[in-house]
């Protein structure tokens, strides 16, 4: 009986080794999705935007169409409280019907930036874009009408990001710093980042040296990015 058990164990071990070997040969990873995401974030495709900035959709409609494809594939994630971003904002822009609800428009450069982030990090999770048409009921245009989530009326240019490549971005962490360095390589001068300060129980923020993005204090639930009042296009697009 003991010999039979050893025999069965030997067979099972052989099968397991065969599966593992086959997976490695096929180039499959045995790491968890989160481990893979963190590894990818630690070494993203690019630290400055080169390939990710090549062939970026040139119009808001084309960029929105790309983002809808990413949403359907699971690489653009919208937080539940702002789920109306898809039907009220991105879908009409992609369909070319945003003129019927112009208050729901989004700055083309913001849409392009999200496309670029997905290209470089594999995925992005968004918690806020245009608050006129999608908001959590607390942070609204009525409560803060001068927010870049609300102005200009032709299309707000702000985005709140809570994950890139599966890593949490709170504005005062290494993932946010990695993202900011990348964004600084193509966002126009005058862009801004909202980051946690050391006085709101969020810990000490880390702000890398940036040439085109300035900082203001924001909550540590996300990293806020906007284009400020600049009308310049994204830089280094190819």
Structure description:
About 35% of the residues lie in helices and about 15% in strands. Strands 1, 2, 3, 4, 5, 6 and 7 form a 7-stranded mixed sheet that branches. It is an alpha/beta fold. The protein has helices spanning about 1-25, 35-40, 60-75, 85-95, 110-120, 175-185, and strands at about 75-80, 125-130, 160-165, 165-170, 190-195, 215, 225. Residues about 1-40 have low confidence and may be disordered. Strand 3 (about 160-165) and strand 4 form a beta hairpin. Helix 3 (about 60-75) packs across helix 4 (about 85-95) and helix 3 runs parallel beside helix 5. It folds into 2 domains: about 1-30; about 30-225, no CATH class.
Give structural attributes.
7-stranded mixed sheet, 2 domains, alpha/beta, globular, single chain, 13% strand, 7 strands, 238 residues, 35% helix, disordered N terminus
